[in-house]
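Margin note: ligand = magnesium ion.
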Amino acid sequence: MALIVQKYGGTSVGSTERIRDVARRIARFRREGHQLVVVVSAMSGETNRLLALARDLSPDPDPRELDVVAATGEQVTIGLLAIALHSMGLKARSYTGAQVRILTDSAFTKARILAIDEANMRADLDAGCIVIVAGFQGVDGEGNITTLGRGGSDTSGVALAAALHADECQIYTDVDGVYTTDPRIVPEARRLARLTFEEMLEMSSLGSKVLQIRSVEFAGKYRVKLRVLSSFEDPEATSSGTLITFEEDDVMEQAIISGIAFNRDEAKISVMGVEDRPGIAYAILGPVAATNIDVDMIVQNIGASGHTDFSFTVNRTEYEQAMEVLLRERGTAFKAREIIGDNRICKVSVVGIGMRSHVGLASKMFKTLADEGINIQMISTSEIKISVVIDEKYLELAVRMLHRAFELEKEPVPSTA
Ligand code: ADP
Ligand code: ASP
Ligand code: MG
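Resulting structure:
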């Protein structure tokens, strides 16, 4: 008998028929004698619909109230799933985040989990009951409803698995695992049987939405055994999906590049002709950070005649606000010849643990893009990734060509070492 946390995403519970399918899968695990905590998302499209309702009434809704609205999507699915399980003769009980007491901070719309009270869940599990928990939501110290950021049900699942010391956390979605890149963009993309935690962390942080970045961080911190699987396959014959491993040596596939991630939600700002002096980066980025805007890639050119150009990227949703801050500060905090913004860019990254021991990968990436006439606007690298910023209109072409150039559709040859 194992304690398993399963998370089902929006498309997996997108209709009552799908909810019935999920209930059948859960019933099968139950018959095998496992204890189950099930986290569900809202029905697909529902969170978008709820947020749009709020934005219909105000362009700038109060974040506390936005969370009150957004959290209702998951409340519907937990109740429906419990009803479906009851109709199959199984014992199940639903909980909102506040009922479990998933305690978070008060950063509405992007709250962080601080603690989880296991008592109710343990009592139910001991009584042979399936516990169903609303993903994406929690409650702060004052009793306010909070949400964990888009895609946050993944994080709810992993956090519950960590709190309960579950044997495994299974993330069920509409693809049967993590692929070399989004299979919607590259049909030849290949499912990875295993992926190291570090690679998954990079893939998520660089835009692969199959797992929310915070869920991967949680899995790393608490060493949660995490697996991505499809809820659309026959429960009797589901593939083993993708296992996120912690042991690099465990990885049988010795691929140099594991995958390609991309992110369309980016925007670039260039501050041209600023003085090349100590403190200039702080003068430009300090006010941006003070407004709680996350800055991603930063590039500063080598200055000529005492001046330099300074470029950075921000999330597209924060682009206008970042531009406002810079235009306000220009002339006081720093002087600049020009501030140029571009919100039609994207970031494409190749990720692989094998990069540590191989050279020439960056030049292969750059040549592939050059051969397609794609201009690289910014570059950033780490030990296991290379990212470039390019014009958004080339995103799909770049991802397809890089996938081909690195031969990601082919199984890597097993290492003999
Ligand atoms: P859920 O609603 O189950 O949380 P998401 O839409 O958040 O599902 O995540 C699953 C989707 O992630 C897939 O349908 C796929 O299009 C996308 N995706 C992006 N990158 C990858 C990747 N590398 N491997 C698999 N899926 C990916
Ligand atoms: N329903 C939320 C969203 O759409 C959370 C999730 O699906 O993970 O972002
Ligand atoms: Mg998701």
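The chain has two domains: 3-174, 260-405.
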